[in-house]
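pasting for ref
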Amino acid sequence: MKDKFSVQSKIYADFRPTYPKELVGYISSYCKERTLAWDVGTGNGQFAFLLSEYFQKVYATDLSANQIENARQNSKIIYKVEHAEKSNFPDKQFDLITVAQALHWFNLEKFFTEVNRTLKPKGIFAAIGYSLIKISPDIDKVINDFYTNVIGKYWDPERKLVDEKYKNIHFPFNEITNNKHFKITGDWTINNLEGYLNSWSAVQNFIKINNYNPVPKVIKNIIPLLKDKNLFKVKFPIFMRIFRLI
């Protein structure tokens, strides 16, 4: 598993979008029991926090100690610094294992072996992610250009899996047909947008190599396109694949 967010862990915690509660409820509805869940690559604990409303206990792990230090605290969540591919959990422990916007950083073959080992029979595994932010056609064009042409070469190769919505990953589990569509929505300020762009790993890679931050320039180009300079609607289309262990 790659650690791509320790450097900007505080930015990540403050500015990453939050998943809708309905999404977590939908995934949890497939579980025969709701005793233990494991959120892998938990980051700042966003998804784990939502899972805690549905499960008696949630284990939330990440390779980054900095991310764990910035995680949202809850009495039902136990945070641990662990490798996704080799945990210390007992066999057949969990009713649900989730990975939200992190699967692409894992060694997939080793991680899927770990899922198979730690998930209960008939347990549920869900891989969730979200696509590029949507605001308006004009602003989306500016962000897409920034994403592709300004910082495009600074993305790690694994980012392509997100762009493909995990469709080209081979999962060695029984897939559950999913016809539900969810999205993250919110009312953001320009400060929220700037913070979110700064949380991108490609931006941090760009800064390391070029010694300057490219985000202020793209923000400057976006501001004139905003109809409301104070608050504007954003959305992130969510994609997911859900599986049941045999």
